[in-house]
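Quick one: structure for this chain?
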Amino acid sequence: MSTVTLNYEAAIPRLGAAIVVLWLSWKAWAFLKPRKEYTLRAVAIVVLGDIGRSPRMMYHAESFAENDFFTDLIGYGGSAPIPSLERPKVKIHYLPEPPHWLRALPFIISAPIKVVLQVLAIFIELFTLPNPPEFILVQNPPSIPTLAIVWLVGRIRGSKVIIDWHNLGYSILAMRFPNSGERHPLVRIAKWFEATFGQKAYAHLFVTQAMHDFLVKEWDLQGIKVVLHDRPPRRFHQTTPQGIHELFAIKLNKSLSAQPALTGFLPPSDPPYSSAFTATNASAADVRIGGDAPAPPPPSSVLDPIYSEVQAPFLRADRPALLVSSTSWTPDEDFGILLAALGAYDARARRAGAALPKLLVVLTGKGPLRERYMAEAAALQKGWRWVRCVSMWLEAEDYPVLLGAADLGICLHASSSKLDLPMKVVDMFGCALPVCALDFDCLGELVKDGKNGLIFKDAAQLAEQIETLLTGFPNCPRLSDLRSYLLPATERPTSPPMYASSQERSDDLWETWDENWARFVRPLILRDVRRNET
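Got it. Here's what it folds into:
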C-alpha cells in the first residue's frame, strides 16, 4: 500500500507538468495555425526603414484604416509619421535600432549581424500582434530579411502577402561595389534571395509599368499583379498666399534667420506682417505682383499696426524665386549636377540683371551625404550673388505647404534599377509644382517633357532650363503653362486631350492617392477571403 501511495504522489507533479505542456501546445497551435476565416479585417504593414520617411507605406496604412482595417505599421522611428495616422484603428510598432557599435565594423561584418537582429525584432512584432493579420504588406527594398520573414509568417499564420515593389534591393546594393557591381558575390546572393522570396505572393504592386514588365519577364512572378503609380494624398495642393505667409513669416522665420548665407540676400521683412515672399497692408514695403490692384493704405502707424486692420497677405513682386529639391541624400542623387547648374545660373543672372530673379534653393530631407554637399554649397555660394542654397528638415504638415509655395521643383533622382520613379516628383505634381528632372529610362511614365515639366541630362541643360522658365519673374508664361497642366481639370484653362487609353486619360487628370488606391488596391483586399486562400 505504501508503495502505491508513493508512486501516486510522484505522478502528481508529472501529470501537472503534462497538462501545462498540453495547454501551452494547444494555445500555441491556436495562435499560429492558418486562419481560414477572419472575425475582423486586419493588415500588418512592414517597412524596414524610418516610417516617417516612407510616405507610400504611410499612405497605404491610411487607406487600409479608412477601409475599416485594423492596421499595424511596423518599422523604425526617427521622423514623425503623418498626423492622419493618429486614429483608433492604426497602431505603430517601432523596431529597436541596431546598436551603435555596429557602425564601426566593416559592412561585410556588420550587415549579417544587423540582419539577425532585424529578423528577431520583426518576428516578435508579427507573432505578438493581437489581431492576426489577414494581409501582410511589405515594402521592397530592402529585401533582406523582410521578404523571407513575411513569406514564413504568411505560411504559418495564413496571411496573404502583398509585396510593394518600390525598386530592386540588389541594384541598390550593387552601388556599394562600383568596381564589380552586379558581379560581386554579395550582390549575386542578394539577387537570388530577392528573386526566390519575392516570386510568390498573393499580390504584387509596382510603382511603374516598366518594373512590372521587367519582373514578370525575368522572375516569373506568381500572384495578382497591379501597377500602382504613386499619387499624392488630398492634403497636397497649391498653397495660397495666406499659407505662404504663415509658413515663411511665422513657422520658418527663425530657421531662415539663423542661416548665415541669407544675411542681406533676401528682401527686408517685418514678421508677422511680412516675409521675404509675402506682404500685407501693414508692411513697410508694400509691393505687389505687376497687374494687381494698388494696395490699400496702411494703418496710421506702420511700425505699430492694429492687427485687426491687417488684410490678407499677397505675394511680393520683389521676392526671390523659390526652388525646392527633396532628397534622401543618397548616392543615387548627384547634387554636384545641381550645384554646377546653380553656378552657371548665377553667372547668367549677373549678365542679365533684372531679367532674372534671385534664387533661394531649399533642399529638404535627411541622409548620409547631406554634410558633404552642403559644405560644397557653402564654399561655392561665397562667390555667388544671385543664388543661395539652404538645407532644411520640415515636419510632415509643413512639407506640402513648402512644395505648394515653390516656383520650381528640381529632381536629381537616378534610379539604381532604372525601373522606379521618384516620389518627390509625385508630391510636387500634387502641389501643382512643375519640375526639372534628371533623365532616366522610365521617367516618361511620370514627367511628360514640355507638359508638366522638363527633362535634363546634365548641369548645362538644367541651368538653361531654369533660366528659360524664370525669365521675367514673377510673370513667367512658360512656367505658367507647365503649372496649368497640373491643376485640377476644373481649374485648367483648356481641357486635357483625349488619349486612346483610359490609363493615359487617368494619368493626365492626375488622380489623388485615395482615388488611385480605391481603383487598384481596394478590389484586392475586399474580396471574400475564403475564396482566395493561397
